[in-house]
Design goal:
The complex is a heterodimer.
Chain A: H1 10-30, H2 34-56, H3 70-101
Chain B: H1 7-28, H2 32-52, H3 56-80, H4 84-87, H5 93-115, H6 139-146, H7 156-163, H8 176-179, H9 186-206
The chains are: A mainly alpha, B mainly alpha.
Chain lengths: 114, 215
């Protein structure tokens, strides 16, 4: 299998990250359930995290001195923590919306539109 | 001659296949319970990809915080709002077509950028001694011992020191203008800690049950 005999490079990771990012963006745009929009955000953040890890990895690059080093992993840790905070606050808002309106359809959240 | 299978590459393709397929499954299904389940698999496979890139602490944090914390929170949200008309909400097909056009063009741009640089297309080759039995003490064994892929990455101490403001991976930076930016992550760490505390207190305040006294 020539597919499995090539060493993995940064591009492989970037392709996976791009697919997850695009899936998340389209899910954010098309889902009507507010929790589905939230899951799209999680996918976007994970695709971005994958890119940070790939750019910081010494394993994937031919010249390890030219990677961004530990910065990639540190930024990925911050992204994970901020995603946890964002999920907590978004879930609280969604539950409040559900208690007030009896639905989680984002198209019904138009009380503030003129 | 048939070149041997690199198991690192094999597991990369396994985990990336799982991550991409279940990310697409999250997008195409309209059942919110199934979406949550597919998201668990997709993010768990991403943790596997982190391990394969040598980020062992970030991979385990991904499993513990993301899959074990954030997604459990999301699944609680799904269960609390799961009434029968809300479980499966269909998107009109016009929005699907528009989303497919926008997503397809975005994906084309991102893939072109990801695949164009020559230095990114292939990783470093393993030394040929990695495929044979090597005796201890020979130069080939010393070369294998230096290879970062054949060593446990052990990033936890380095990352912890980085969060405290010491960068053990970049102790010496010759350029004085770049040296000013190498001061570690102590201030962002403190900011994100206080931010997390404030957000969790605010979320608990927002989501608490309100009992109104009717008159």
């Amino acid at each position: 299998m020539s597919l499995f005999s090539q060493p993995v490079g940064v591009s492989h990771y970037l392709v996976v990250g791009a697919v997850m990012f695009v899936c998340g963006v389209v899910a954010m745009a098309t889902k009507r359930n507010a929790l589905g929009v939230l899951m799209g955000i999680e996918l976007v953040l994970n695709g971005a995290n994958l890119n940070f890890i790939a750019f910081g990895s010494q394993i994937l690059h031919r010249e390890p001195a030219r990677t961004i080093g530990l910065d990639g992993q540190l930024i990925a840790l911050f992204v994970i923590v901020l995603a946890a905070a964002e999920a907590a606050i978004a879930l609280a808002i969604t539950l409040n919306f559900y208690n007030n309106q009896g639905t989680v359809d984002v198209d019904r959240a138009d009380d503030l539109s003129g | 001659m048939q070149s041997p299978i690199i198991w690192h590459t094999f597991f990369f393709f396994l985990f990336s296949f799982l991550a991409c397929v279940f990310a697409v499954a999250v997008l195409v299904t309209s059942n919110i319970v199934r979406m949550a389940f597919f998201l668990v698999i997709s993010l768990g496979s991403t943790a596997g990809l982190f391990f394969l890139a040598g980020a062992d602490l970030v991979g385990s944090m991904q499993l513990m915080i993301y899959v074990g914390g954030t997604l459990v929170l999301l699944i609680f949200g799904v269960m609390l709002t799961a009434r029968s008309p809300l479980i499966s909400m269909h998107t009109p097909s016009g929005e699907w077509i528009l989303g497919a056009i926008v997503g397809g063009s975005l994906l084309a741009v991102l893939l072109q950028i990801a695949l164009s640089p020559k230095a990114w297309q292939q990783g470093p080759e393993l030394p040929p001694a990695a495929y044979t039995a090597v005796e201890a003490g020979t130069p080939a064994a010393a070369e294998l011992a230096r290879d970062p892929r054949l060593r446990p990455p052990q990033t936890a101490t380095k990352l912890g020191l980085g969060l405290l403001g010491e960068r053990v991976d970049k102790l010496v930076v010759q350029d004085p203008t770049r040296r000013a930016g190498m001061s570690g992550y102590l201030l962002p760490f403190e900011i994100v800690s206080v931010h997390l505390l404030v957000v969790l207190v605010g979320a608990a305040y927002l989501a608490r049950a309100r009992f109104r006294v009717s008159d």
